[in-house]
Amino acid sequence: MARKPTSKAPAPTKAGTPKQKKKKAPPHIRAIVDRAEARAKGETPTKPKVAIDPVIKPEKPKRRWRPFDQDLADELCEQIAAGGSVRAFTLEPGRPHYCTIYKWLRENEEFANQYARAREDQADTYADSLAYIAETDEDVARARLKIDTMKWVASKLKPKKYGDFKAVELTGAAGGPVLIEETGELDQARRVALALGRALERQKLKVIDGAVG
C-alpha cells in the first residue's frame, strides 16, 4: 500500500503557478503607505507610531593616535618660535592632528618643556615684529589689528617682560624678607585702640537703649 505524501504541493493559481508569500515591508515604509492612502481618501492621516525617516547614525571610526615623532616636534617648535601656530602647522599635508599634538604635550614632559620655550621665543618674535609691521604695512587699520593682537599674545606668553602690570617686591637686608619688630610702645598703642573701641561700642548700646525706652 502506497504511503500518502506528508507535504502538500502549493495550490496552483489562476495563472497555473504556485502562490508566493509576500514579504512584509519595514514599519516605517508601511507608515508612509498608510499616510498616503489616507490622503488619497481625503482623510486626515494619523500620527505614525514609528519614525518615518529613521536616523541612522554611522559608527565613528576609532582614532588611531600617531606615535610621537621628535623630528615633527622640532619642526613644530621652530615654526612656533618664528611666530607660527599649532593650527597652521597641522593644516599642512602629512602633519598630525592638533589633538595629537596636545596628547604629545600631556604625555611627553621633555616635549612639553621644549614647547614652552618655543612659546617664550614666540613672544620675543612678536615684540620684534611690531615696529616692522608699523613701518611696512600700508593699511593702517590692518596694521593696528596685527600690532594689538601680537602685543596681547606677547603679554600673556611673557607677562614679566611684556605685561602691562609689574609686581613690586619688598626685600629686607641681604635680599631676605622684611622683618617687623614689635616694641613696647606698639603693644601699648594696640591696647589703647582696643579699649577705645570697646568704649565706643558701650556708648552706642546706651544710646540705642535710651531711644528704645
**Quick check: average pLDDT?**
76
Give me the CATH architecture of the domain at 70-160, please: Orthogonal Bundle
What is the CATH topology assignment of the domain at 70-160? Answer: Arc Repressor Mutant, subunit A
Class by alpha and beta content: mainly alpha
Number of distinct helices: 8
Give the biggest beta sheet.
Answer: none
Terminal Cα span: 129 Å
pLDDT below 50 for ≥5 consecutive residues: which ranges?
Answer: none
Could you tell me the radius of gyration in angstroms? 42 Å
Percentage of residues in helical conformation: 55-70%
What is the tally of beta strands?
0
The CATH class of the domain at 70-160: Mainly Alpha
The CATH homologous superfamily name of the domain at 70-160 equals: Homeodomain-like
Succession of helices and strands: HHHHHHHH
Q: Based on CA inertia axes, which overall geometry fits?
A: extended
Proportion in β-strands:
under 5%
